[in-house]
Amino acid sequence: MATTSTPDESPGAKMTDEEYGNHRAAHALWAGTSVLITDARGRVLIQHVDYLDTCLLPGGALDRGEPPARGAARELHEELGVTVVVERGLAVDWVSPGGMSAAAVMRFPGEIIHVFDGGTWDDVRIAAIRLPPSEITAVEFVEPARLPDLLAPRDARRALAALRARIDAAGTVLLADGVPLVPTVLDRAGVLRTPRPRHPYAFDPSPVPDPDTPIRQAWVWAFAPDGRVLVLLDPETGGACLPGGTPEPTDGEDPVVTVRREAAEEAAARLTGITYLGHLPDPGAGRTRVRYAARLTALGAAGADPATGHPYVRVLATPEQALQLFDWGPAGADQLAAVHQARARLGLPRAAPQSVTELAGTTTW
């Protein structure tokens, strides 16, 4: 019985079933899974194992004929003792034969690894983890920027690409040796390659109680008409920030003036309708940080920020996406709730889940 030609064969070529099967078997690859799990702070779960010097994400090789999602759920049960339904794919990585330092005797042919979203685990689920008697010696949640220090380079690239895909909400991304075939703006900026800014301060929606309290910082959630907010990415570090900064003497001790000035200097942004959100007191230092919301009306040509000497990458992200770029602890949820209340007062819609968008040129709304 003849089999029609495939795209990699010469036009009009015919093959028998046996020849076709041999042809395809010669291109066989291993198949495996990884599962990306985070805690409430956005830290990634990694496993310490007794057979490698480096750590791993949960997962492993698929059994013969096993669908990838089912294999991922099985591995979670075997390695962590938990039952989880795995449904959402984050990345598919083609690992080249040279992309893994396998012993020659293993005859490593290359591998396809499916990376799944294991979700965000709360304290109850984390406490339910039960490790097997061998192989997995410990688990821990680590800052994403630590992954290159703890995982093999190929595994760290894959994990960070999958985490950026989860934040970007763009669907499953295709990788080759951990590198995206079509990098997003988060990939190009190298988001998460350095530790995220951490502000573990309680959010207080009331006014600053003492008008003489020094203001350490003033940031603004600047809303575009579609309900997304302006986020600035540092191309040197991959770090993210909201428009704003440290008050200067020329601001006249008015944080609203600070916000307007910093938004113009950092992002060439014009704001209107600036409204107070709350503050984050730092009792140990006797100072606080104030937060505002505003409408974003225009962006000029991006210029070098006076503080850093280079232009930021300007992007629009949903408030939920923006929050994942920071390590604010439980107070982040309180601030996010205040952000959406301010958005509603400004008469703006709640942004639908969508990809992060770069704003490279001038824009007026």
UniProtKB/TrEMBL annotation:
Domain Nudix hydrolase: 21-164
UniProt superkingdom: Bacteria
Cofactor: Mg(2+)
Keyword Acyltransferase in record: no
InterPro entries from the UniProt entry: NUDIX_hydrolase-like_dom_sf, NUDIX_hydrolase_CS, NUDIX_hydrolase_dom
GO molecular function list: hydrolase activity
Keywords: Hydrolase, Magnesium
Record carries keyword Protein biosynthesis: no
PANTHER family: GDP-MANNOSE MANNOSYL HYDROLASE (PTHR43046)
Protein name: NUDIX hydrolase
